[in-house]
Structures are given as C-alpha cells and as structure tokens.
Write a structure and sequence with these properties.
Strand content of chain A: 25-35%
Number of helices of chain A: 8
Helix content of chain A: 25-40%
Strand order of the largest sheet of chain A: 7-6-5-8-4-1-2-3-9
Radius of gyration of chain A: 21 Å
Largest sheet of chain A: 9 strands, mixed
Oligomer: heterodimer
Strand content of chain B: 25-35%
Strand order of the largest sheet of chain B: 9-8-7-10-6-1-4-5-11
Helix content of chain B: 25-40%
Distance between the termini of chain A: 52 Å
Distance between the termini of chain B: 61 Å
Number of strands of chain A: 15
Number of helices of chain B: 8
Order of helices and strands of chain B: EEEHEHEHEHEEEEHEHHEEH
Shape of chain B: globular
Number of strands of chain B: 13
Structural class of chain A: alpha/beta
Largest interface: A-B, 93 and 86 residues
Shape of chain A: elongated
Chain lengths: 315, 267
C-alpha cells in the first residue's frame, strides 16, 4: 500500500478543518504518516487516531519556526525518506506551497499546487488561469508533492481508529535560511479566514470609503470580508482582504460582491465561487455577466436591509 | 556607501490579463501572443533600481540585470526592463525549454544565474500572474542553496545582509538573511516608475545578451517537456458563467436577496 506523508504545522489545541481534509484525502490514497511540527496536544493526538494515522513523526530540532521555509523542507525530506512516502501532502497556504517547492527539489519530486482532487492512480485535478480551466496533472517522478486547496474534501474519520506511535526524525542541515527576528500578531477580527470561508462579502469602489455595511452583512452571515484592489489601494480596508489577480483567490459557496464593477482582475479571484450575488448601481457592470443573482441598486440601501432581514429571520 | 550590488531581476512575459487567456489545445501550455511584462515583476525591478540608485547607480558599479526565459516574445519583458532602467538584459531562450514546469524552469534559471557570476540578490515578483504556482523562486533558491524571502513588503540591504518585512494574514514578520538571497516582493513595496523618454532612448543603446542552454551548460534533456517532473494530461475549459436573475431595486431588494439566499439554502 502506498505510503502518504501529511505535513501538519503547529496544530495548537485542535486540528484545523484543512488539516482534517488532508488526513481524509491521505487515507484514500494509502497509509498515512503525519510529519508534525510543534507541540502534540492530547486533543490533536486523539484526532490523528480517529482519522486513521499510522504513525507520527516529529523533528529533532525545536527551532524550525524561527526560520523561513528551508528547514521545514529539509525536515519533510528526511521524514518522507523515513516513511518511504510516495505522496507528500501539504496545505495550499503560501508557506505550504513554498515548503512543497523546496521539498520537491530535495526529493526530485514533481510538485502540483492548487489541487482540488486526487484520483487513486495519483492524477491530480487543479484549476488554472484563475479558474477558467481545470487540468488533470501527474507527477512523472516516483514521489509526488501535492498541496490541497481547502474546502474540496469532506473530512471523515476512519471507519476504525488507530493508535499511532511517534518517532523522531533528525533534521538535516538546510541551505542558509532567512531568520525571523520579530513577529507581531495582528488583532484578530473574529471573522473566518478569507481563503477558507464558506461565505465572502466583498466591497469595492462603490463603498466610497465606508466598509461598515459590508462588515455588518458579513457578520450577519458569519462570512469573511473581502475587497477589490480599488478599495484596498484607497486604504479603506487592509490589503489582506484583497480578492483578485494580485490578491487572494477564493472559491466559497457564496460570494456577495458589493459596489465592485468586476473587471477581469477581480473576476480572476472569485469566479469559481459556487454562487455569486452582485449589487451595483451601474447596470453595465461586468460583474452582472457572471452573477447568479444581481441587484441594480445602491449598496447603502441593499446591504443594511439584507443584514437586518437575516438577523430577523435568524431570530 | 562602499558596497555595490549585482542584482538579477527575473522578468516574465505573460498573457495580458486584460484579454481572456487560453491554454492551447496541443500541449496545454498558455498562449502568450498578447504578452506583456508581468505587472508584478515591475515591483521587483523597481526595488532593484532603488537599491542600486541608493548606492550611486551604475556609475558606481551597481548592476541590475533583467533576466527572462522564454521564446522570442520574452525579449519584450527584457526591453521594457531596460527602458525602466535595468543596466543589462539577458534573454535565455532555447527551443528545448518549451513546456518546462517549475522544476525544469528553476533548473535552467539557476544555471543562468550561476553563469552571470557572483550575484548578491535575485529578485522576483510575488507570483507570476499566469501559472499561479509561485514555485519557481523557492525552487531556484533551493537549487542555488540560498535563503529565500518571499512576499517582502519592505527590503533593505546593509553590510551583506538583508532585512525585510513580510505581512501575513495573522502576523507581520521581520526577517533577516545573509546575501546572496532570493527575494520576492509584493505590490506594496513601491510604486514602479514608468519608462520616460530618456529611459526609452537609453535602452536602445543597452545590449541584450541571448543565452542558449549550451551557453549555460544545461543538457536539453533536463528541461522542457522531457525534463519536467509534472505533466498535464488534459485540460478542460470551465463552462463560462452565465448571468442569472438581475433585478432593479424598488425598495425591497435586500429582502429579495435574503429570499434568494434562503432558496439556495445559503442562510
């Protein structure tokens, strides 16, 4: 049976949904070994057992978090060799992709990012050119390294739990790496992460400097807040919120676009959303060409009315 | 300041995002007829120019080399870079490179960077706007055995070390690395200049060096479709989205919106 290595980075007290998705996919491909970085809490250990993990590897070095990417790639390369892995799975975060990239060179392994599904024969499906194409790809090497986009696999515990043992992996010296000398936590918004969110409410130029109505509707729906480049460039909202070609690509179940014209740059970041709702004063806005439900109207009337109605219905 | 810098900026020509982009049906590579200098690479070039200018520019011996890999059209990205102020242009081109994936691309680029001698910095944009993989800078760094700093929103160089700031969703980091290093910069780092008339005239006098795989000592079998570690077996165009229901607000559109969400079971 194929050996599959899953990288889980600093899970904290419990595993994120995207980690559960990785473990579920891994089980469908073979026998799972977890390469952990960071502490192993009792809760996480129990979840590994529940998800059928065969064994857990931990690095000999404690300081992987002080450096960017290279030492984590060196650790995973050693872990993959120790586990005899034919497939290595990582999350599709920017860091996950970079670790995958360096790991691929270390293992002489083909790397495929933005994966949405993997078939039993190892063929990976991914979307490219901002979701306008879906391609099937394969690594032609003995080992393949894949990064899985969130929200494409339904997490499912194993039919029978396992009792995985732990082993230590010697981390080889990495190439010179950049050291992190200071880290400032940003204030938490309390909203879901934009790239993983089930619902995104995004505002653009039409918000005219006031994101209050976007945030209010987002909170009524339990959604993340997004923005067009025009809105982030104007400084109305943090750059982290930018959706589009130069920002984040999202594919939530529902994307509500408010006061965004929907030029190609913006469409590139959201056109794979399952349902798109658009609100814009200008009936000619290109966003209406791709909206499942469009409202020609003033965002400052429609958003507050919708937020109030949702709160009323949710009681 | 006595230190001078030799900076290589990787520039790509990409299909212009203003137009619909396509994969060709033959080998599932991107069509690049309407190609331009990748917008994101302009930030890397600007960062390089600013570092060089702060040290007295080319007169003081600082070099900013624009390196592009690809077929004939890739030379346009180099030309634009020279107009913006790069001191030299290098165009790595070879028929055998066609179809290279990130692993093969990084192998060829690593050989080209080594060919250029002792380089202090390799700068790139934050991701190519077409392939979306962002694998190449990290793979290049691994092949060259160098530290990588990605998504830099500030970049300073002093005494053979760089300091950069990276902004992530939940935290901001300050990082340090010894030179040489591979750095990718974001679109927050600066405001790229437009080539002015003087720059356009000056660019005509700058030479573009064309390199083949033989020039940089790379076996053609290591790159292109043959040397790639991944292969695209099929590509399907997503059916275009079609417009759904469009209504004009008559005072109750917010309610109708909630009705729609309820009907779609999205509440």
């Amino acid at each position: 049976m194929a050996q599959v290595l899953v990288f889980i980075d600093n899970p904290g007290a419990s595993l994120k949904k995207s980690s559960l998705e990785l473990l579920t996919l891994a089980r469908s491909l073979g026998e799972t070994t977890v390469a952990l970085n960071g502490d192993l809490s009792d809760g996480v250990a129990a979840t590994f057992a529940e998800y059928g993990v065969g064994s857990i590897l931990r690095p000999s070095a404690q300081d992987l978090d002080d450096f960017l990417v290279a030492p984590k790639a060196a650790y995973l390369a050693a872990a993959a060799e120790s586990a005899g892995a034919g497939v290595v799975l990582l999350d599709n975060s920017p860091e996950g992709k970079e670790i995958a990239a360096r790991l691929g060179i270390r293992l002489n392994a083909g790397v495929i990012t933005d994966v949405v599904a993997v078939e039993a024969d190892g063929t990976a499906r991914k979307s490219v050119l901002a979701g306008s194409y879906t391609t099937a790809c394969r690594a032609t090497t003995p080992v393949s390294v894949l990064t899985l986009k969130a929200n494409n696999v339904t997490p499912e515990p194993a039919p029978a739990p396992t009792s995985p043992g732990t082993a230590s992996v010697q981390v080889p010296a990495a190439a010179a790496a950049a050291r992190i000398t200071a880290r400032e936590q940003k204030a938490a918004s309390g909203r879901p992460d934009l790239t993983d969110a089930r619902i995104v409410v995004a505002g653009g130029r039409g918000m005219d400097g006031d994101f209050g109505p976007v945030e209010e509707l987002a909170d009524a729906l339990g959604a993340a807040v997004g923005a067009s480049r025009a809105a982030t460039d104007a400084g109305w909202i943090s750059h982290d919120a930018q959706v589009g070609q130069t920002g984040k690509t999202v594919s939530p179940q529902l994307y509500i676009s408010a006061g965004i014209s929907g030029a190609i740059q913006q469409k590139a970041g959201m056109q794979t959303s399952q349902v798109i709702v658009a609100i814009n004063k200008d009936a000619e806005s290109p966003v209406f060409e791709i909206a499942d439900f469009g409202i020609i109207g003033d965002v400052f009337d429609v958003l507050p009315q919708a937020a109030a109605e949702i709160k009323k219905r949710k009681g | 300041m006595e230190e001078t810098l030799k900076i290589v900026v990787l520039v790509k020509h990409v299909p212009d995002a203003q137009f619909d982009r396509h994969l060709n049906g033959v080998d599932n590579t991107a069509d690049r007829d309407e190609s331009i200098l990748s917008e994101l690479d302009e930030y890397a070039l600007e960062a390089a120019l600013q570092l060089a200018e702060a040290r007295g520019g080319s007169k003081a011996g600082n070099q900013v080399i624009a390196l592009s890999m690809g077929p004939a059209g890739a030379v346009n990205a180099v030309k634009k870079s020279l107009q913006m102020g790069a001191t030299e242009g290098v165009h790595l081109t070879d028929d055998a490179l066609a179809g290279s994936d990130a692993a093969a691309t990084s192998l060829a680029l690593a050989a080209a960077v080594r060919h250029l001698g002792d380089v202090d910095l390799v700068l790139t944009g934050m991701a190519s706007t077409d392939g979306e993989t962002s694998l190449v800078p990290a793979q290049l760094a691994e092949r060259l055995g160098l530290p990588q700093v990605t998504f830099a929103s500030t970049l300073e160089v002093d005494g053979g070390r760089l300091t950069a700031r990276r902004d992530a969703d939940t935290s901001s980091e300050t990082v340090e690395a010894p030179l040489p290093a591979v750095v990718s910069v974001t679109d927050q780092i600066n405001e790229p200049r437009y080539p002015n008339f003087k720059g356009i005239i000056a660019a005509k006098r700058k030479s573009i060096t064309t390199l083949s795989l033989a020039d940089i000592g790379v076996d053609p079998a290591q790159v292109g479709f043959a040397g790639s570690w991944t292969t695209v077996t099929s590509a399907e165009q997503r059916p275009p989205r079609t417009a759904g229901t469009i209504i004009t607000d008559e005072g109750d559109a917010g309610i109708k919106l909630v009705d729609f969400l309820a009907a779609q079971k999205l509440l």
